[in-house]
UniProtKB/TrEMBL annotation:
This is Phosphatase 2C-like. PROSITE patterns: PPM_2 (PS51746). Residues 374-478 are annotated as: Disordered. It comes from Raphidocelis subcapitata. Coiled coil: none annotated.
């Protein structure tokens, strides 16, 4: 991974591993065999966005289900290819030994993919897992130029990193910092308006999900309907972020703003805010840094159903668990991630979100989420109950066959849950109870008369209750 020592500064229930590389630690390559212990059979995705109530749209997103296919058509300049270098060496040797004709033949054997501008790792199919997808959301502020700039370059910078594909976490960090440096150069030349953007990128890498986050966008995983937050919102008031900001010479205002300017503590760009950027910001020395926080999450199995990437406009109105429940219900109905993303955006608008809205839904498999099954209940003796789409619980048919009466786990619809007392507050029989006793007496008398015992007799009228002792003493004193 990116570092030899893993620092879990922000534990996520033991499910995720956060990587925080110490300065100067060399990256160590890791075998991909462990990552391929479990991998989803297929990944599918869909994205949706809406301007909302803002005057302009400042968000951008990426949804790529096949990294290899996208990288093959990428126009970025790749790193040197070992096969091309070997072919060029063979061409030079042939030119020395046999003349120009043999040199041309050897040069023609050079790698066609590398000549076309594709990254070198495409030569070896074993470098890539069967499922490799790249997804990102960018939430711009002070304009859309930074978000659009980052979205146009993110995938290319990842696949052409020297660390890719053996170290995807380091490749994501390289991509963030490379885009930061390139945008600084563009702004300094006046070729683009100064702006900033948060960035959240997710690389589904076989049985792993590697995320890089700089800002307050969020990634949430659904594990059998339970929401697991894979990233941390980078707010200035966060204790970890506040400590980093203060150590870099910045401060956090009482209203939670970074140096009185921004509501986020990590972002790309923002070079128009001189107080937040310093020389050497590539190393993360300024109060506002573009260095991402890395999360390396290993999928637990088919129970990990889908991932939601969303900008803060979604999470302002959607708690993580509510978003997972909503998306899960929609996917069970139509199993379409693109349609699910659109419905999440529409629901956030209905809940009066005031920001731009961008959502990417990543399904980790072909099938829709399965209904949750509850079994082994101690009260029903092993009877199973199933939760339906509308949230109601139904007992299985085997429960009613186990015993002649109703199962303890299934309450009959007409059975009362409590029997009211026949006595009133003063200790006398209630009127309803008296009527019931009188009717019972008539029925008993009628049955006795039919048997020749005698005519039915009326029940005696209950005596009036005696007043309390203190009241009797008071009346006697008078």
């Amino acid at each position: 991974m990116l570092a030899s020592a893993l620092a879990a500064a922000r534990p996520l229930g033991g499910a995720a591993v956060l990587l925080d590389p110490p300065p100067g630690v060399a990256a160590a390559p890791e075998s991909l065999a462990a990552a391929l212990a479990y991998a989803p059979p297929r990944i599918r995705s869909g994205a949706a966005a809406d301007q909302g109530r803002r005057s302009q749209m400042e968000d951008a997103s990426i949804a790529c289900d096949d990294v290899a296919a996208a990288a093959a058509s990428c126009g970025c300049v790749p790193r040197p290819c070992s096969k091309a270098a070997a072919a060029d060496g063979a061409a030079a040797a042939a030119a020395t030994a046999a003349g120009a004709g043999a040199a041309a033949a050897a040069g023609g054997a050079a790698c066609a993919a590398c000549r076309a501008g594709a990254p070198a790792w495409l030569h070896d199919a074993a470098e890539l897992p069967a499922c490799a997808g790249f997804y990102a959301v960018f939430d711009g502020h002070c304009g859309a130029s930074a978000a659009q700039f980052a979205a146009a370059r993110a995938l290319g910078r990842v696949v052409h990193s020297l660390h890719f594909p053996r170290e995807p976490a380091a490749a994501l960090t390289d991509a963030f910092l490379s885009i930061e440096a390139e945008y600084e150069a563009v702004v300094s030349r006046g070729a683009a308006a100064a702006a900033g953007t948060t960035a959240l990128a997710a690389l589904v890498w076989g049985g792993r999900v590697v995320l890089a986050n700089a800002g307050d966008s969020r990634a949430v995983l659904s594990r059998r309907g339970k929401a697991i937050e894979l990233t941390t919102d980078h707010k200035p008031a966060d204790p970890v972020e506040r400590s980093r900001i203060e150590s870099a010479g910045g401060y956090v205002c009482e209203d939670g703003l970074l140096c009185g300017e921004l509501a986020v503590s990590r972002a790309l760009g923002d070079y128009h805010l001189a107080a937040l950027k310093r020389a050497g910001s590539r190393a993360g020395t300024g109060p506002l840094t573009a260095e991402p926080e890395i999360t390396d999450y290993r999928l637990a199995g088919p129970d990990d159903e889908f991932i939601i990437l969303g900008c803060d406009g979604v999470w302002d109105v959607f708690p993580s668990q509510r978003a997972v429940e909503f998306a899960r219900q929609r996917l069970r109905l139509h199993n379409d991630p693109a349609r699910c993303a659109e419905e999440l955006v529409a629901e956030a608008l209905r809940m009066h979100s005031s920001d731009n809205l961008t959502v990417v839904v990543i399904c980790l498999g072909e099938d829709p989420p399965q209904p949750r099954v509850y079994s082994g209940s101690a009260f029903s003796g092993g009877a199973s109950r199933r939760t339906s789409l509308d949230g109601s619980r139904r007992c299985s048919a085997s429960d009613s066959m186990a015993t002649p009466g109703p199962s303890p786990g299934c309450r009959p619809a007409a059975s009362p849950c409590r029997t009211p007392s026949p006595l009133t507050l003063d200790g006398s029989l209630s009127e309803a109870a008296a009527r019931g006793d009188e009717a019972a007496g008539r029925r008993a008398g009628a049955s006795a008369g039919a048997a020749g015992v005698g005519a039915p007799q009326a029940l005696p009228t209950p005596a009036a209750p005696r007043p309390p002792q203190r009241q009797r003493q008071h009346e006697a004193a008078r």
